[in-house]
Amino acid sequence: MSGKASDGPRGFFGTLKVIQNKIDIKNMSNFYWNSPNFLSLSFRIPSDKGQGEPNRVTPSFQGNFYVTVDNVTYDLDTPYDSYERIGKRTYNARYNSEGALKLSTILKQTGQTKRFYCNWR
């Protein structure tokens, strides 16, 4: 498994900080490549909205997910699996596209600071 996590048992992979966003995302708890089991990219995004308040995160998962890093944009396509944990306001989406596989080479690198620009369209 390779990637980044903000806390918890996967914290040794690296750190994640949300610099700026235009949707209801407070932070990303993990963003990692799970190989070889699923060949998928997974991440969870806790929202800072309270229970029952509307948010714009869940509809975002319905579009294609693009990640730009080092001036290269990877099209991860739509998630093959996504769900919301209502009690924890946590969202999870998994991708197993060719773009996700290519992005995994960046996630496997160590000792470097990378800036990931994420966009759903």
Give the secondary structure arrangement, pairings included.
Layout: E1 2-5, E2 30-34, E3 40-46, H1 57-60, E4 65-69, E5 72-75, E6 81-85, E7 90-95, H2 98-107, E8 117-120
Antiparallel strand pairs: 1-2, 2-3, 3-7, 4-5, 4-8, 6-7
Pfam families: DUF7823
InterPro entries: DUF7823 (IPR056725)
Domain DUF7823: 13-121
| CA-based shape | globular
Cross-sheet strand order for the largest sheet: 1-2-3-7-6
Q: Helix and strand succession?
A: EEEHEEEEHE
Q: From the helix content, strand content and strand pairing, which structural class follows?
A: mainly beta
> What is the number of helices?
2
Query: Helix coverage percent of residues?
Result: 10-25%
Computed Rg: 14 Å
- Number of E-state strands: 8
Which regions contain 5 or more consecutive residues with pLDDT less than 50?
Answer: 5-11
Distance between the termini: 27 Å
**Mean pLDDT rating:** 73
Strand content: 25-35%
The largest pleated sheet is described as: 5 strands, antiparallel
Question: Could you describe the 3D structure shown?
Answer:
The protein is mainly beta and 121 residues long. It is built from 2 helices and 8 strands; from the N terminus they run βββαββββαβ. It has helices spanning 57-60, 98-107, and strands spanning 2-5, 30-34, 40-46, 65-69, 72-75, 81-85, 90-95, 117-120. The strands form 2 sheets. Strands 1-2-3-7-6 form a 5-stranded antiparallel β-sheet, covered by helices on one side. It has a 3-stranded antiparallel β-sheet with strand order 5-4-8, with helices on one face. β6 (81-85) and β7 form a beta hairpin. It starts with a strand and ends with a strand. The model is unreliable at 5-11 (pLDDT under 50).
